[in-house]
């Protein structure tokens, strides 16, 4: 039937009013919208990088650093395996890193079998996209005394892939912590990351925040030798000399610190800037496992200093006066309010697994974005006017009905983009213009069907009913195929392509709604009220 029930009419009107309400905030400034009551819609269209300007950065992940760190860890594991506390030690010499292998010589060739057995315990399985990817280490004997522990190709590939994926997530967290929105962070190639942040004109702080490694660890200060003795070349085995980080005073002091990590920054669950004795500090809290390790470490080292190390620099080295059992503590280090807040942001976001090298750094000015917005508005207005004129000229009064539906189509489309917080890009504007062009397609199909029914001698009411009912299946088919195409573009495309896909998807849905509901409702009311003897189409 052509007519709608009362509740159906109420739902259609409610949806149209909701579209107008969600679109309205875009006609006010942000300052005015922020003063709206909480029950009023207040979301505005978010403009992408190409419309409001911003920062465009291309990073390369130094995956070789990840492999280097892994080889250092394997070296420590090999030393520990050969010299357990509860068994006879296996003496070795000339342990070194060679390419992607760790090599050493046994002092006594008779220890070969025991050494191979102990080292096999270090082998674990790599993880690939399909599950277990094979062993991560390969152990070989070389001659009478030599033993080689090598990373497998699967392990190297897995480490590099994991480092890039983890870097993307860390970069995303850090940018989000800055409060920026509509950020596009994508993987490019095997080891590159593209970052686009709209609205940012000074990229130096953004680059600094993203590119800081922020690798935090808690270690013991080595008191078996003085710093001066270590600087003269007598560094105890298992220790290293680290610079102190004194951001305010610029002093450069040295600390002799054990390499063994008591608790790593991976166990941090929260970090916040705060004040202690009037000085800015950073309060942190571990997870349960990290809290237990921290409590055990502080319990067994009361009276000794421990170092809080960030990116191989000692932030502070307080003395443990009593066990810290609550799983939380504070970092002090001559911070300013800004530096304490920045450190807290970096610690909350986590550590980068590898350094990032900037390959490309560009700033897109807002003037270029303004030109794009103006061009998009002009194209939208021209497209809308052209469609309206054509429909009126070709279909007369029924063309006006289609134009009313077209206006509500644009209102619902822009309102939906505002509510969903979708980012409007230049391709998105192209999607809106395209949606306007094809929005009246459904009306054209229905009107042409009505003309056929009129020529076949049907009454106006019967012709109108046939025009709407017999093209429904065609409308659904075309809409579904458009949505499938848009879904594929969204899944496989980048930021601008995704913006186009989102705009196109919403446009398809609103076009279907306005054609099936609004046009049909207006025509239905007109036919039943006027009772025309001839359809003016």
From TrEMBL:
It is found in: Cell membrane. It is a multi-pass membrane protein. Residues 357-527 form the Protein export membrane protein SecD/SecF C-terminal domain. Pfam families: Sec_GG, SecD_1st, SecD_SecF_C, SecDF_P1_head. Keywords: Cell inner membrane, Cell membrane, Membrane, Protein transport, Translocation, Transmembrane, Transmembrane helix, Transport. Residues 164-222 form the Protein translocase subunit SecDF P1 domain. Residues 249-354 form the SecDF P1 head subdomain domain. Its main location: membrane. It comes from the Bacteria. The keyword Methyltransferase does not apply. GO terms for cellular component: plasma membrane. The keyword Disulfide bond does not apply. The chain crosses the membrane at residues 378-397, 404-422, 428-447, 468-490, 502-523. One of its GO terms (biological process) is protein targeting. InterPro entries: SecD, SecD/SecF_arch_bac, SecD/SecF_CS, SecD_1st, SecD_SecF_C, SecD_SecF_C_bact, SecDF_P1_head. Part of the Sec protein translocase complex. Interacts with the SecYEG preprotein conducting channel. SecDF uses the proton motive force (PMF) to complete protein translocation after the ATP-dependent function of SecA. Forms a complex with SecF. Part of the essential Sec protein translocation apparatus which comprises SecA, SecYEG and auxiliary proteins SecDF-YajC and YidC. Belongs to the SecD/SecF family. SecD subfamily. NCBIfam families: 2A0604s01 (TIGR00916), secD (TIGR01129). This is Protein translocase subunit SecD.
